[in-house]
Amino acid sequence: MAETYTFDAKDLAEIKKLIEKYPEKQAAVLPVLWYAQDKFGHSDPSVQKLVSETLDVPEAHIRGVVSFYTQYYEKPIGRNVLDVCTCLSCHVSGGYDMLHYLEERLGIKAGETTPDGEFSLQSVECLGACGYAPMLQVTNDKFVNHLTREKIDKLLEDLRAGKEPEFESNPMPQHQKES
Amino acid sequence: MPEIFIDNKRFEYEEPGKVLQFMLDNGLDLPFFCYHPSLSIPANCRQCIVKAGMPVFDREKGTFEVDENGDRVIRFFPKLMTACSLDLADGMVIHTHHTDELVKQAQADNLEFILINHPLDCPICDQAGECPLQILTYKYGPEGSRFEHKKVHKPKAIQLGPRVILDAERCINCTRCVRFTDEVSKTHQLTIISRGDKNYPMTANGQTFDDPYSLNTVDICPVGALTSADFRFRARVWEMNQTPSVDITNGKGSSTWLWTRDNLVLRVTPRFNEAVNDHWMPDAGRLAYRKFNENRVSRPHLRPDDSEQVRTSWNNAQLTVLEEIEKVDADDILIIGSPHASVEDNYSLRAFFSSKGVSKFYFVPHVVPGSGDGFLISDDQAPNTNGVRALEFEEINDKKLIKLIETGKPKLIVILDDDLIGRTSLTMDHLKQSWTVVMATNHSETTRAANLVIPVTTAAEHTASYVNVDGRIQRTVPAKETLYTNRRLNLEMSMGRLDHYGTKFDNWVSDSNRVDCIPAWEFLVRLDADRDTPEWVSSRQILDEIADSHPAFTGVTYERMDDENGIQLKLEQVSEAKTV
Amino acid sequence: MSTDWKSYKPLLVPAIPDLHEIKVYEKNGGYKALKKILSDKKKWNPANVINEVKTANIRGRGGAGFNAGLKWSFMPEPDGKPRYLACNGDESEPGTFKDRKIFEFNPHQFIEGAIIAAYAMQIEVIYVYIRGEYRPFVQKLQKAIDQAYDNGYLGKKIQGSDFSVEMYTHMGAGAYICGEESSLMESLEGKRGYPRVKPPFPAQRGLWGRPTTINNIETLANVPLVINNGAEWYLSIGPSTHPGPVLYGISGHVNRPGVYEYPAGMNIMTLINEVAGGVRGGKKLKALIPGGSSTPPLRADMLDGVSMDSDSLRQAGSMMGTAGMVVLDEDTDMVEVIWRISYFYDHESCGQCTPCREGTGWLQKTLRKIMEGNGEMRDLDILLAICHGMEGRTICALADAAAWPVRYSIERFRDEFEKKCKKTVYAVA
User: Fold this and answer.
1) Does domain A80-160 have CATH number 3.40.30.10?
2) b/e string for B290-312 if b means 16 or more Cβ within 10 A?
């Protein structure tokens, strides 16, 4: 039995603001899906239906959009999603080693979720942190750069304890030299 | 006039347009999949690729630059262009596969790409034989494939909706189906999901593709990805005959093709008619194939006394009707024409009973208000309401009909093909007090209540005309033999391969599907036994007579209907709203 | 040019602490260019602003390198109906990670540039499209936009003038193709990111069918520099055919990877060896992917005297792209690298056009076969034939981007590919 999801008055007020940014309601599909996913943790069919009804956009269209963009989760997923970049710069800098280490640590393969629902692991395409490879992103949010086994151990420990990673600033090396 | 040079041949064009459509209009060949003249142009299949260029204009001289041979200097676009999306331009030069090796190679490359993940299961695919991918591959494709990897696997035999089955592996992502639901039927029920070579069309989760026009996506699917749940695995297209006809399930009268094999109609598909239905038709009209095949009245049925109906001979049926007519005064006869029957049948009904002294002729329009959609489904459930009206039958509603029966107490009632009880205009009891003749194509509650049932031909078996809700008259051509017609003798009927080459020993060739029925007009002619020669020997003669005698039909002939895809009549009452 | 790089002071992302705060930005000359225009609208009428930017020849920093001012001039005359500026912060070409520096460290310079662009093209609504993976950076930019609104640089009647413009951020959700300008517009309209057929071009029919210009973030960050200092000054930075400061993103096998700002036209070996501290572990350089994954890789011996500008790179046999340089050392398995790039394009092809949808997968599968040691010599010919069938045959350039790395690495590293293919030994009966 699929859960039913709803937006409350506060949500609808926020969504109204999102819609007002655009001349047409349909343009708010991506932002409203983001909003829904932040609230419900995924964009499964019942969430898609809710977004479709809220925006008065055909449900099939919403499904097409959700399945096109990789960051929307088409079904419920682990509480922490670890997106390990294995593309180009990360690939040549040991991205797959980090992915395999995580697979080993979590006892799952990329694309799977741990039985306790705590972690999902994915191998993803370039995240735009090529200079700080290898790296991963935690649940569509913070980047964790310059991965090492130790750093991964620490990260898993923190996440298990409910501690989200901090934003890591990567200043331009030029600045550091000068300052 | 602006000009365009295609493969070194000069063409003139008047209206702005796209190169591919212009080439198709001029009978030139170019392969394509995603393009459809009635849908938007995504240019995504990349198959209609051509080399295109424009002459170089020298502004100073005010003329086109010419080379040493005096030919125009052509600046070609750096990339090959898709002809479907390329606007015609004055002086444009196009090279297709006929005159350019790169274009030829590009078309073959493209087909090789399309085929790498295509299952190549033509032997078990319903589309085989009428498959653009199959046809174009033979004509333009590479001789083999260099792809030696595992193909991408996708869902197969998915019931997308009650009438449409999806094989996602066969899909080539032309998006015609998605565009159809977005742009034509506007139900927006389909989308492409996922991306890259994992793409395929799908509905929203848990939604069923129940679009009332869903089967059009099967027609326009250029491969066997979408097939008809009803028709799949029924027949190979090359075994069937294709006959032009008209949708008789609804007042719009979409132009159709009837596909028959061994005298069964196996499917109904839309026939292009710009004035009526473009390339489309409603799903409901396609179900008419069952009406043509199933539950048919075959041989006259007579009810002696109050017992069950029994089959009887045509001779006995004729004599019985004549006897019943003799028994009563003309004023005691109630004649009910039918919007479900053709112009010719209604006319001959009227003509025959006029000669017997009957002066009043009625019909009950079959309209379900609100059931139409303003597109190809009308509130009017019958194909010929306007035709009966134009023949000056008096239009009455259910109440009036019941009143006529209850107060007039007719002794003889003649109903032309119309299930008045089934559609709840009447009840069984209303017919009990009279002797009732029903001329019908199919068994129904009305035929069960009748004293005599005369089996008549359906639109799939006769040549006859119907006037749609907009006042357009169109005609049918017999597609299916009755016991008394013969494909080889009736020159209007199409002959398929099986008819030419099939034998009685082919397991799908039989006589069992020929119904013992005749056109209603023919039965009425037979009733007129006093004449030395029959009044009409064909429906064509009837129509000619109508055209001569009824101003609304002036100039109408079968030939003109064929040539012009139907003829718009000038009727007083044509709008659907007035039929309510 | 390469002689004085050591004394170069960054202009796009200057080394000023807290520059992302509007007060700090203003104190350091921020929003001066905008005020300059708005205070003398006669001198700085829209046509003149476009001319100045056109003269400065700011080459688009998103990869195509098209003159930004010239692009602006394609916008039709205003007709009273909406027209849009879409700022492209999708930045998803592997090897590229520069715009995030602007979002994080100097967002106001981009905002100012975008406002000036809107003024020049008489646009009243700006959308900033940023890839969904950059959520933390979207938040940083949003904060800066809010500050700009609070200080009267965005919104109605900017700085008391009659010029008004709104700026909204729009977050993608994971699709490389949305960096392609027409696909970006589809995504902004809430659809699947399918590139549009051109013509019509965005300046004719863009967002919601209205004239639209799409500019890269870094490109727009250059605009205030041009207005403040003049086109002539701008042209003096780097080669005049490709002038101005460039954010070089250097990654891969170097000692000090990161984003560096220097004039365009920097010598490649200087960038690798001096700026980025040389190849990691003292190894030899094998190859360079100069401007993001789609630009053809160059062998180390092809890099002598080559500089990071479009002309020099074209002569060398590659492209400037996004200046996202991926450095590969001598131990790199080129087949593996090219397979991984192919895998990326296979994953990111939107699936609209046949050659790309099918070709990217075919390339990837064939390269995988070779990488795993099952290749045959004819696979190389097949790869080249696939590339030929993809290049220039699709609506957008993703097919080309997928084909070039394969085509040029087979050409330039053929021995490596052949070695893998020849491993297959068939038993002869």
Assistant:
1) yes
2) ebbbeebbebbbbbeeeeebeeb
